[in-house]
Structures are given as structure tokens and as C-alpha cells.
Amino acid sequence: MRSRRRRGAARARWTGAEYVHDEADRAREKARVSEDLGRAVYGRRRALGISQSELACRAGMSQPQVSRLELGGGMPTLAVLTRLARALDASFALTFDGGEPHLGFEPLTAPVLAEPSSRNLPRPGSGPARNGI
Question: How confident is the model at residue 117, as a pLDDT?
């Protein structure tokens, strides 16, 4: 008798129209945002003409992680999104239009140049002679 009451209470809690729809709506929204992010990563990667392995190397990730991300398999942290944006030579934008999230990678207008390191620059007069070339 007691287990029947517990089942009845649990069923009432889970079948309450408001509760079930809220949970289902949240799950659908999360999946949609993950898929949108995956499409954005895939599209920008293809526009650059690089492989998943190359993107993974640039972003400090593994190729399976990139694949899972492109397939909508989760939401990365802000740190990972930052590395991805840098690896894709793009800025990451997340906007809310009427409550609907829109995200994407926008190509940078000017290439980001690494600051030259004084270790890598040849000292004047230390390089090979050019003989008029």
C-alpha cells in the first residue's frame, strides 16, 4: 500500500503539465543551442579550409572533442570558447534577440599578428651576407 502511494505521488509530480513541459523545453533549448554552436564551429572551420585535427591542434583540444562539439555534444566553457575563437581567427558572439539566443563566429577584420619575440629576431650584422641580393 505504501509503495503504491509513493508511486502515485511521483507520477503526479512528473505528469503535472507545467513541470513536464518546463523540463522538456529546457532540454530542447539546451540541445538547440549546442547544435547551433556545433554548426557555427563547423562552418567557420570549413570556411578556413582546415581539418578537425588542425583545429584541435590550434585550440589545444583533441580531434574527438572537436568532432563531438561540431555534432552538438555539449556546451564548452568560456575558456574553451576563447581558445576556439582564437584558433578559428574569429570573434565569438552570443546575442539574445527577443529572448532567443544566437551565436556564431565572426571572422576578424584584420589578422591577429603575434607579437615578435626578441629571441627570434636576428641581431643586426649577425646574419649571412647577402652579396647584393
Answer: 47
